[in-house]
Design a protein that fits this description.
- Two copies of one chain form a homodimer.
- Chain A has one domain: Tetracycline Repressor, domain 2.
- In chain A, 70% of the residues lie in helices and 0% in strands.
- Chain A contains eight helices and no strands.
- The N and C termini of chain A lie far apart (73 Å).
- Chain A binds a DNA duplex through loops.
Chain lengths: 197, 197
DNA sequence: CCTACCGATCGGTAGG
DNA sequence: CCTACCGATCGGTAGG
């Protein structure tokens, strides 16, 4: 009877440490200690430290995409999709804080070939958002001036949430999501007798 | 006749490398080489590698604050102040790309006592924004629902700009600033017959 | 998965 | 500011 592998424990320790101290500042000894083994023992599970980063980033990318894809493909109006998408994004951030933070901030520590693979995962996620925005523009629901700049604007607000959100903070996640969705829709809906000063 | 000191060249090299590779991934040998001397020679100018990070971050904090403070203290309407502040922030980002990126992203690499000093510089800058928002709320110009969440929302969009903005990109800085200011004002102005779905 | 260890590289220093 | 170098620590491995 083999006991459960410690791989998940190692990944969790690595995600936690990478998110708090950064990839470069985290040593394999840190990870091993937090996972309950000694540094050499790590290499029964992985080939290199960078593998851990790749696995964490890949898992987070999947989570974000799995949360968003069904919304994009769904039947609702673009406005409703934006609301759902904001909530889905923030739920992933809240549920997997360390992982999502590594995905959003630490992927740059990857070396060339793997960084490009991650870049394309990030692009796919951004394109899902782009599809919602495009649909809203095509239907005339959104009147925002520059659709691709607006996508960057929206995603940068959302991606920053994991830098400050704490489950024990003043506002519960659903309230943050509601406000953010409302504000983002205000941006996307575009001018309605709005004054330019 | 002493020739000009190389300290500025060292700071510039460090800012460039810290912004591109991160503080931890940059070695004193990298910095020395890019500044045109050998690694030991750095220590004629600095005591530790961390000192460079402190100097860069402090200089950037001063730039951001110097750009915003006169706007906050000025006579214009809150709406106009927001437009000016967005433009001022983005001008600092564009003018000092490496420095501002280090200020916004790499300060977390500082060790405890110095990190707290930087945190308070960051807080001061956020409070300047808070003052503009508060003034707009007091005067009834802004009807946004949660002022302090809105401040976070606004600043996180602006702070993300240095992650993607390139001077040679599609949109000139003034165009980005105009769109961002318009969108931020849309958020801050609040609901005007807006529907909640 | 541990013990024991390696070569490389790190930030920093002594002496000039 | 260079030459020459140091102790510490890094990611990773051999052998069991």
């Amino acid at each position: 009877m083999p006991r459960p592998s410690n791989k998940p424990r190692i990944l969790e320790a690595a995600a936690d440490l990478f998110s708090r101290k950064g990839f470069r500042a985290t040593t394999v000894r840190d990870i091993a200690e937090q996972a309950g083994l000694v540094s050499g023992g790590l290499y029964a599970h992985i080939a290199t430290k960078e593998d851990l980063l790749v696995e964490i980033v890949g898992a987070a990318a999947e989570e974000f995409e799995a949360a968003l894809a069904p919304i994009v493909a769904g039947p609702d109006s673009p406005e409703t999709k934006v609301r759902q998408a904001v909530r889905a994004h923030l739920e992933v951030v809240a549920r997997s804080r360390a992982r999502s933070r590594v995905f959003l901030d630490e992927w740059q520590a990857l070396s060339r070939p793997r960084r490009e693979a991650v870049q394309s995962l990030r692009n796919r996620y951004e394109q899902l958002w782009g599809a919602i925005l495009q649909e809203g523009a095509d239907r005339g629901s959104f009147g925002v001036e520059d659709l691709s700049l607006a996508r960057i604007f929206v995603l940068s607000c959302l991606n920053a949430v994991n830098r400050w959100y704490r489950p024990e903070g003043r506002l519960p996640l659903e309230v943050v999501a509601d406000h953010y969705a409302t504000w983002i829709l205000r941006v996307l809906k575009g001018p309605e007798g709005e004054s330019r000063d």
